[in-house]
Write a structure and sequence with these properties.
The complex is a heterodimer of chains A (142) and B (146). Mean pLDDT of chain A is 70; it is low at 9-16 and 18-57. Chain A has a two-stranded antiparallel sheet with strand order 1-2. Chain A starts with 9 loop residues before the first helix and ends with a helix. Chain A is rod-shaped and about 80 Å long. In chain A, helix 3 packs antiparallel against helix 4. Helix content of chain A is 63%, strand content 7%. Chain A has helices at residues 10-21, 32-37, 68-114, 117-141; strands at residues 45-49, 52-56. The longest helix of chain A is centred in the middle third of the chain and has 47 residues, at 68-114. Chain A is mainly alpha-helical. Chain B has one domain (3-145): Serine Threonine Protein Phosphatase 5, Tetratricopeptide repeat, CATH 1.25.40. Helix content of chain B is 81%, strand content 0%. In chain B, helix 1 (3-19) packs antiparallel against helix 2 and helix 6 packs antiparallel against helix 7. Chain B is flat. Chain B starts with a helix and ends with a helix. Classes of the chains: A mainly alpha (142), B mainly alpha (146). The interface between A and B is large, with 52 and 54 residues.
Chain lengths: 142, 146
């Protein structure tokens, strides 16, 4: 048993999801009249002329002012997100490495049992790829 | 994330995507999701792919169902049947993803069960290289985040 067969990784699923959802664009954009009817207030009116939004000032728009605390909170949240993404990527990498090395091990066991030269070549190649993968994961994730 | 949760997530996303298109696609995906025994998996694989579905999305779903069927056959002692299902699915298309890798692995295991271990090493090596590609992609993603 190689133990290498498994379900898709999260990254794969997210990618497939994005591909699948790409065909839905443009279907869900609310129109301004609907928003107004629902009680939405806009600081400026925007009229859509062939895709270009034309702004006509009707109220005084105040710029948003970010305080130091706002920036600190934003940077902290960004750092936490980076850390989470890094953990996920390293988790995926470790998973692939484990399967890669399990497969190499199985190939080598067969090569030893059968004394077949082609299988022995695949064993050497797999062992080399496993070692290279371990090194890469250690460099990136440890 | 558990394997089952991942599959549910995949199929849910595809079902959502299908909601933007044709009802036939949603029905097809639902039948993939609910295929949980040999008969229903075989019936699903006999169905055609709904028109308008992206070929690679369809391949992913068919590969996953084919893998589950092949695994079921192999576990039930039908290595010949398992190998045939995996080969048929691999002939529909291949990619550097876990779906294709799973099919190579289960076909390799079927070959071992049939007394052809050296041929099995070819399939295991194919799966091994796919895993290496996926490993490199994961590490590249990790590098991009730094």
């Amino acid at each position: 048993m190689t133990g290498a067969a498994r379900r898709p990784t999260l990254v794969t699923l997210v990618m497939v999801g994005f591909v699948g959802l790409a065909g839905c664009g443009g279907a869900a954009a609310p129109d301004a009249s609907t928003e107004r009817a629902a009680g939405g207030e806009m600081a400026t009116d925007e009229a859509d002329y062939g895709g270009a939004a034309v702004r006509t000032e009707t109220t005084t728009a105040e710029p948003m002012v970010a305080t130091d605390d706002d920036w600190d909170a934003l940077l902290e949240a960004d750092g936490a997100m980076d850390e989470a993404l890094e953990l996920a990527a390293c988790g995926d990498a470790a998973d692939h490495l484990e399967h890669l090395c399990d497969l190499a091990e199985r190939i080598c066991a067969i090569a030893e049992e059968t004394e077949d030269s082609a299988a022995a070549d695949r064993c050497s190649d797999g062992t080399m790829r496993c070692a290279r993968g371990r090194e890469a994961v250690a460099d990136a994730c440890d | 994330m558990t394997a089952v949760l991942r599959l549910v997530l995949l199929l849910s996303v595809l079902v959502l995507a299908a909601g933007c298109g044709e009802a036939a696609t949603a029905t097809w995906l639902e039948s993939a999701r609910s295929a949980d025994d040999r008969a229903s998996r075989e019936a699903f694989l006999d169905e055609g792919v709904p028109p308008g579905m992206q070929p690679d999305d369809a391949r992913v779903v068919r590969h996953d169902v084919a893998y589950q069927l092949a695994r079921e056959l192999l576990d039930g002692g039908d290595a010949q049947g398992a190998g045939a299902i995996a080969t048929e699915a691999l002939n529909e298309g291949r990619a550097d993803d876990v779906f294709t890798a799973n099919l190579f692995v289960v076909r390799g295991q079927a070959l071992e069960a049939l007394g052809e271990p050296v041929r099995a090493t070819l399939d295991y090596h194919e799966a091994l290289m796919i895993n290496e590609t996926l490993l490199e992609a994961a590490l590249a993603a990790e590098g991009d985040e730094e």
